[in-house]
Amino acid sequence: MSVPVQYGSSLPRNSSAASAPQGPPAAPESPPNHFELQRRPLTAEEADQITRSIRDSPNITGYSPREWCGRRDTFVLVDRSRRRIAGALLTHHLAGTWSEIAVVFLFEEYRGRGLGRELLQGALRTLTATGRRYLLFFSSPHMERIASASGFRIYADEAAFVAGSARRKLFLKVIYKAQWLASVYRLREIRRKRAEFSSAFDFKVGVLTTGGAK
Ligand SMILES: CC(C)(COP(=O)(O)OP(=O)(O)OC[C@H]1O[C@@H](n2cnc3c(N)ncnc32)[C@H](O)[C@@H]1OP(=O)(O)O)[C@@H](O)C(=O)NCCC(=O)NCCS
C-alpha cells in the first residue's frame, strides 16, 4: 500500500533543487492530505518525544536530542490533522562521499500503512540529487523490504559488505566507526541497551549509489 504524501515547501517532489531547504512553496501534485514531509531540524519537544521512544527500542542505537535539533540533516513527517509529527528520518553526512540514513522512525500508531516507505523515499528524492552514497544499517524485516524497494543493495552483514575490499574495510572499520561512535550519548545508549535488552545490534547493510533511488 502506498500512502500519498503532500510534500511541503521545503521538499518539492522530484526537484533536484530540493536540497535547499528554503524556496517558494511547491505546487501540490495531488489533493492535500494529512501528511507533509519537511526537511528541517526537530523542535526540542519533537526531539524529546522521538528520543524517548527510541530509548525503548532494542534495535536502534540512538541519536541525541542535539543531533535531532540541527546537528544532523533531518526530515519530519507531519500529521497535519493532528498537528504533530508521525515520524522522522535522520541522515548523518560522513566525511567523504558517504552518508548514513541513520534512523527511519515512525511512532507506533503510524506504523503498518506504508508511511515508512514514503518517509524514506521522500527523503531520498532530495538526498540523492547530491550524488553521495548512502549506507543504511537495519535489523527489521520491514526495513529490509522498504530499503530494497527504494533501490538499496542489501548485504547480510558487515563482512558481506566488505567482502575482501580493503577500501571498504578501511571505510567501515575506521572512518565510519570513528565518526559514528564520536558521541557520548550513543556510547552510553549502546552500553545500556546491551545490558537492559540484550541488544546484539546485528545489522544488515544497505547501500545506495546515485541513480539507484526510486
Ligand atoms: C521500520 C518502520 C519505519 C517501517 O515503517 P512502516 O510504515 O511501519 O512499514 P510497513 O508496516 O508499511 O511495512 C513495510 C514493508 O514491510 C512489509 N512487512 C510487514 N511486516 C513484515 C514482516 N513481518 N516481515 C517482512 N516484511 C514485512 C510490509 O508488507 C511492507 O512491504 P510492502 O510495502 O512491500 O507491502 C517502522 O515500523 C518503525 O518506525 N519501526 C521502529 C523503528 C525502526 O526499527 N526503524 C528501522 C531501523 S532505523
Automatic annotation (TrEMBL):
EC annotation from Swiss-Prot or TrEMBL: 2.3.1.-
Signal peptide range in chain numbering: none
Domain of life: Bacteria
N-acetyltransferase domain mapped to chain residues: 37-182
Amino acid composition bias (Pro residues), ranges on this chain: 22-31
InterPro entries, alphabetized: Acyl_CoA_acyltransferase, GNAT_dom
Region: Disordered, residue numbers: 1-36
One GO MF term attached to the UniProt entry: acyltransferase activity
Keyword set, alphabetical order: Acyltransferase, Transferase
Name this protein carries in UniProt: GNAT family N-acetyltransferase
Organism: Streptomyces solicavernae
